[in-house]
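Weekly puzzle thread! Below is a chain. First person to post its structure in C-alpha coordinate form gets bragging rights.
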Amino acid sequence: MTTDFFAALAQAGEKVEKTLDAILSALPENKVTEAMRYSLMSGGKRLRPALVYETAKLFGKSGGNIDRLAAAIEMIHTYSLIHDDLPCMDDDDFRRGKPSCHKKFGEANAVLAGDALLNLAAETLLDGDFSAEYFRAAAFVFRCSGIYGMVGGQAVDIDAETPRDFETLDYLTENKTAKLMMASVGAACICCGGSGEEFNALVKFAENFGKAFQAADDLLDSAQGDGISYVKILGVHDTKARIAEYNILAGQCVKIFGEKATFFRELCSFNSSREK
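Winning reply:
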Protein backbone atom coordinates (compact mmCIF):
# COMPACT_ATOMS: atom_id res chain seq x y z
CA MET A 1 0.00 0.00 0.00
CA THR A 2 1.13 3.56 -0.69
CA THR A 3 1.25 6.49 1.71
CA ASP A 4 -1.61 7.98 -0.33
CA PHE A 5 -3.82 5.06 0.68
CA PHE A 6 -3.23 5.52 4.40
CA ALA A 7 -3.59 9.27 4.02
CA ALA A 8 -6.97 8.76 2.35
CA LEU A 9 -8.12 6.48 5.18
CA ALA A 10 -7.01 9.01 7.79
CA GLN A 11 -8.63 11.88 5.94
CA ALA A 12 -11.91 9.98 5.66
CA GLY A 13 -11.85 9.33 9.40
CA GLU A 14 -11.17 12.97 10.20
CA LYS A 15 -13.89 14.22 7.86
CA VAL A 16 -16.62 11.91 9.10
CA GLU A 17 -15.71 12.45 12.75
CA LYS A 18 -15.95 16.22 12.26
CA THR A 19 -19.43 15.80 10.77
CA LEU A 20 -20.50 13.35 13.47
CA ASP A 21 -19.23 15.58 16.27
CA ALA A 22 -21.21 18.53 14.91
CA ILE A 23 -24.39 16.44 14.73
CA LEU A 24 -23.92 14.97 18.22
CA SER A 25 -23.13 18.37 19.74
CA ALA A 26 -26.60 19.60 18.77
CA LEU A 27 -28.35 16.82 20.74
CA PRO A 28 -29.70 17.21 24.29
CA GLU A 29 -27.41 15.89 27.02
CA ASN A 30 -28.61 12.71 28.74
CA LYS A 31 -27.54 9.10 29.27
CA VAL A 32 -28.76 7.99 25.85
CA THR A 33 -26.89 10.68 23.93
CA GLU A 34 -23.83 10.01 26.10
CA ALA A 35 -24.06 6.35 25.09
CA MET A 36 -24.49 7.34 21.44
CA ARG A 37 -21.33 9.47 21.52
CA TYR A 38 -19.39 6.80 23.46
CA SER A 39 -20.05 4.20 20.76
CA LEU A 40 -20.01 6.43 17.68
CA MET A 41 -16.74 8.21 18.53
CA SER A 42 -14.84 5.19 19.83
CA GLY A 43 -12.56 4.89 16.82
CA GLY A 44 -12.65 2.06 14.33
CA LYS A 45 -11.39 1.92 10.78
CA ARG A 46 -14.12 4.18 9.32
CA LEU A 47 -14.04 1.99 6.21
CA ARG A 48 -17.61 2.71 5.18
CA PRO A 49 -17.19 6.49 5.21
CA ALA A 50 -13.91 6.02 3.31
CA LEU A 51 -15.80 4.04 0.67
CA VAL A 52 -18.35 6.85 0.40
CA TYR A 53 -15.69 9.55 0.01
CA GLU A 54 -13.50 7.56 -2.38
CA THR A 55 -16.46 6.67 -4.57
CA ALA A 56 -17.41 10.35 -4.73
CA LYS A 57 -13.82 11.15 -5.77
CA LEU A 58 -14.24 8.90 -8.81
CA PHE A 59 -16.87 11.38 -10.00
CA GLY A 60 -15.12 14.54 -8.79
CA LYS A 61 -17.68 15.19 -6.04
CA SER A 62 -17.38 16.05 -2.35
CA GLY A 63 -19.08 17.86 0.56
CA GLY A 64 -22.76 18.37 1.37
CA ASN A 65 -24.74 15.26 0.59
CA ILE A 66 -21.60 13.11 0.48
CA ASP A 67 -20.76 14.10 4.06
CA ARG A 68 -24.33 13.26 5.10
CA LEU A 69 -24.16 9.84 3.44
CA ALA A 70 -20.84 9.03 5.13
CA ALA A 71 -22.11 10.11 8.56
CA ALA A 72 -25.46 8.34 8.26
CA ILE A 73 -23.90 5.05 7.17
CA GLU A 74 -21.44 5.19 10.07
CA MET A 75 -24.37 5.78 12.45
CA ILE A 76 -26.16 2.74 11.04
CA HIS A 77 -23.00 0.64 11.36
CA THR A 78 -22.54 1.76 14.98
CA TYR A 79 -26.16 1.09 15.96
CA SER A 80 -25.77 -2.43 14.58
CA LEU A 81 -22.65 -3.00 16.71
CA ILE A 82 -24.40 -1.76 19.85
CA HIS A 83 -27.30 -4.15 19.28
CA ASP A 84 -25.01 -7.03 18.22
CA ASP A 85 -23.19 -6.81 21.55
CA LEU A 86 -26.37 -7.10 23.64
CA PRO A 87 -26.90 -10.25 25.77
CA CYS A 88 -29.87 -11.24 23.59
CA MET A 89 -27.63 -11.21 20.50
CA ASP A 90 -23.86 -11.95 20.55
CA ASP A 91 -23.44 -11.09 24.26
CA ASP A 92 -20.07 -9.34 23.99
CA ASP A 93 -18.70 -7.40 26.96
CA PHE A 94 -16.04 -5.51 24.99
CA ARG A 95 -15.89 -3.58 21.74
CA ARG A 96 -12.61 -2.14 20.39
CA GLY A 97 -10.87 -2.79 23.68
CA LYS A 98 -13.43 -0.91 25.78
CA PRO A 99 -16.59 -2.05 27.61
CA SER A 100 -19.42 -2.47 25.13
CA CYS A 101 -22.25 0.05 25.27
CA HIS A 102 -24.59 -2.05 27.41
CA LYS A 103 -21.80 -2.82 29.90
CA LYS A 104 -21.03 0.89 30.25
CA PHE A 105 -24.57 2.32 30.25
CA GLY A 106 -26.90 -0.62 30.90
CA GLU A 107 -28.99 -2.64 28.46
CA ALA A 108 -31.95 -0.24 28.30
CA ASN A 109 -29.78 2.75 27.42
CA ALA A 110 -27.85 0.68 24.89
CA VAL A 111 -31.06 -0.35 23.13
CA LEU A 112 -32.22 3.27 23.05
CA ALA A 113 -28.81 4.49 21.87
CA GLY A 114 -28.93 2.05 18.96
CA ASP A 115 -32.50 3.04 18.12
CA ALA A 116 -31.61 6.72 18.32
CA LEU A 117 -28.60 6.32 16.03
CA LEU A 118 -30.72 4.60 13.40
CA ASN A 119 -33.28 7.39 13.64
CA LEU A 120 -30.54 10.03 13.58
CA ALA A 121 -29.16 8.47 10.39
CA ALA A 122 -32.56 9.00 8.77
CA GLU A 123 -32.75 12.56 10.09
CA THR A 124 -29.27 13.28 8.74
CA LEU A 125 -30.14 12.00 5.27
CA LEU A 126 -33.48 13.81 5.22
CA ASP A 127 -31.66 17.07 5.95
CA GLY A 128 -29.88 16.83 2.60
CA ASP A 129 -30.26 18.79 -0.62
CA PHE A 130 -32.78 16.57 -2.31
CA SER A 131 -32.77 15.55 -5.93
CA ALA A 132 -34.16 12.42 -7.56
CA GLU A 133 -30.68 10.87 -7.39
CA TYR A 134 -30.18 11.71 -3.73
CA PHE A 135 -33.60 10.30 -2.83
CA ARG A 136 -32.71 7.03 -4.58
CA ALA A 137 -29.34 7.00 -2.83
CA ALA A 138 -30.96 7.37 0.60
CA ALA A 139 -33.49 4.66 -0.23
CA PHE A 140 -30.65 2.33 -1.28
CA VAL A 141 -28.91 2.86 2.07
CA PHE A 142 -31.97 1.77 4.02
CA ARG A 143 -32.71 -1.16 1.72
CA CYS A 144 -29.18 -2.44 2.30
CA SER A 145 -29.41 -1.95 6.06
CA GLY A 146 -32.88 -3.42 6.63
CA ILE A 147 -34.53 -6.81 6.30
CA TYR A 148 -33.22 -7.18 2.71
CA GLY A 149 -29.68 -6.60 3.97
CA MET A 150 -27.95 -6.18 7.32
CA VAL A 151 -30.95 -6.95 9.54
CA GLY A 152 -31.82 -9.96 7.39
CA GLY A 153 -28.28 -11.26 7.74
CA GLN A 154 -28.37 -10.86 11.51
CA ALA A 155 -31.67 -12.76 11.62
CA VAL A 156 -30.00 -15.72 9.91
CA ASP A 157 -27.02 -15.44 12.25
CA ILE A 158 -29.12 -15.82 15.41
CA ASP A 159 -31.40 -18.55 14.07
CA ALA A 160 -30.10 -21.70 15.76
CA GLU A 161 -32.08 -23.91 13.35
CA THR A 162 -30.39 -22.48 10.24
CA PRO A 163 -27.96 -24.97 8.63
CA ARG A 164 -24.31 -24.10 9.32
CA ASP A 165 -22.99 -24.67 5.80
CA PHE A 166 -21.11 -22.56 3.26
CA GLU A 167 -24.28 -21.46 1.44
CA THR A 168 -25.66 -20.05 4.68
CA LEU A 169 -22.33 -18.41 5.49
CA ASP A 170 -22.22 -16.80 2.05
CA TYR A 171 -25.75 -15.40 2.42
CA LEU A 172 -25.10 -14.21 5.96
CA THR A 173 -21.82 -12.50 5.05
CA GLU A 174 -23.23 -10.77 1.99
CA ASN A 175 -26.11 -9.37 4.01
CA LYS A 176 -24.73 -8.81 7.50
CA THR A 177 -21.30 -7.50 6.46
CA ALA A 178 -21.09 -6.66 2.76
CA LYS A 179 -24.45 -4.93 2.27
CA LEU A 180 -23.52 -1.83 4.26
CA MET A 181 -20.31 -1.55 2.21
CA MET A 182 -22.44 -1.98 -0.91
CA ALA A 183 -24.64 0.83 0.41
CA SER A 184 -21.57 3.04 0.85
CA VAL A 185 -20.34 2.79 -2.72
CA GLY A 186 -23.75 2.35 -4.34
CA ALA A 187 -25.41 5.32 -2.65
CA ALA A 188 -22.42 7.57 -3.36
CA CYS A 189 -22.42 6.48 -7.01
CA ILE A 190 -26.15 7.21 -7.36
CA CYS A 191 -25.77 10.55 -5.60
CA CYS A 192 -22.96 11.53 -7.97
CA GLY A 193 -24.92 10.61 -11.10
CA GLY A 194 -22.96 7.46 -11.95
CA SER A 195 -24.14 5.18 -14.74
CA GLY A 196 -25.77 1.81 -14.26
CA GLU A 197 -22.56 0.10 -15.34
CA GLU A 198 -20.54 2.08 -12.81
CA PHE A 199 -23.07 1.37 -10.05
CA ASN A 200 -23.01 -2.37 -10.75
CA ALA A 201 -19.20 -2.43 -10.83
CA LEU A 202 -18.89 -0.66 -7.48
CA VAL A 203 -21.57 -2.73 -5.77
CA LYS A 204 -19.98 -5.98 -6.97
CA PHE A 205 -16.62 -4.70 -5.74
CA ALA A 206 -18.11 -4.05 -2.29
CA GLU A 207 -19.83 -7.45 -2.23
CA ASN A 208 -16.56 -9.27 -2.86
CA PHE A 209 -14.52 -6.99 -0.62
CA GLY A 210 -17.08 -7.35 2.18
CA LYS A 211 -16.77 -11.12 2.04
CA ALA A 212 -12.98 -10.90 2.04
CA PHE A 213 -13.15 -8.51 4.98
CA GLN A 214 -15.33 -10.88 7.01
CA ALA A 215 -13.13 -13.86 6.17
CA ALA A 216 -10.08 -11.89 7.35
CA ASP A 217 -11.93 -10.99 10.55
CA ASP A 218 -12.64 -14.67 11.12
CA LEU A 219 -8.94 -15.47 10.74
CA LEU A 220 -8.06 -12.83 13.31
CA ASP A 221 -10.73 -13.95 15.79
CA SER A 222 -9.05 -16.68 17.78
CA ALA A 223 -12.09 -17.22 20.02
CA GLN A 224 -14.60 -17.70 17.16
CA GLY A 225 -17.47 -18.20 19.64
CA ASP A 226 -20.53 -20.28 18.84
CA GLY A 227 -21.42 -18.63 15.52
CA ILE A 228 -20.75 -19.60 11.94
CA SER A 229 -17.45 -18.46 10.40
CA TYR A 230 -15.19 -19.03 7.40
CA VAL A 231 -12.57 -20.72 9.56
CA LYS A 232 -15.13 -23.11 11.08
CA ILE A 233 -16.59 -24.02 7.69
CA LEU A 234 -13.48 -23.99 5.49
CA GLY A 235 -10.49 -24.19 7.83
CA VAL A 236 -7.56 -21.75 7.91
CA HIS A 237 -5.92 -22.73 4.61
CA ASP A 238 -9.09 -22.54 2.52
CA THR A 239 -10.18 -19.33 4.26
CA LYS A 240 -6.94 -17.67 3.14
CA ALA A 241 -7.53 -18.99 -0.37
CA ARG A 242 -11.07 -17.63 -0.32
CA ILE A 243 -9.80 -14.18 0.72
CA ALA A 244 -7.37 -14.17 -2.21
CA GLU A 245 -10.19 -15.20 -4.56
CA TYR A 246 -12.52 -12.46 -3.35
CA ASN A 247 -9.72 -9.89 -3.67
CA ILE A 248 -9.11 -10.85 -7.29
CA LEU A 249 -12.82 -10.61 -8.08
CA ALA A 250 -13.09 -7.25 -6.33
CA GLY A 251 -10.13 -5.86 -8.28
CA GLN A 252 -11.63 -7.01 -11.58
CA CYS A 253 -14.88 -5.20 -10.78
CA VAL A 254 -13.29 -1.72 -10.69
CA LYS A 255 -11.20 -2.06 -13.86
CA ILE A 256 -13.61 0.25 -15.67
CA PHE A 257 -12.35 3.14 -13.52
CA GLY A 258 -8.71 2.60 -14.46
CA GLU A 259 -6.07 4.31 -12.34
CA LYS A 260 -8.74 6.31 -10.50
CA ALA A 261 -9.65 3.11 -8.60
CA THR A 262 -6.21 2.67 -7.02
CA PHE A 263 -7.63 3.16 -3.51
CA PHE A 264 -10.08 0.30 -3.99
CA ARG A 265 -7.37 -2.10 -5.13
CA GLU A 266 -5.09 -1.09 -2.29
CA LEU A 267 -7.95 -1.59 0.15
CA CYS A 268 -8.00 -5.27 -0.80
CA SER A 269 -4.25 -5.52 -0.17
CA PHE A 270 -4.69 -3.77 3.18
CA ASN A 271 -7.37 -6.24 4.17
CA SER A 272 -5.16 -9.21 3.34
CA SER A 273 -2.31 -7.94 5.51
CA ARG A 274 -4.12 -6.35 8.46
CA GLU A 275 -3.56 -7.61 11.99
CA LYS A 276 -6.75 -6.27 13.64
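Puzzle host: Confirmed. Bonus trivia for everyone else. The beta strands are 94-95, 98-99.
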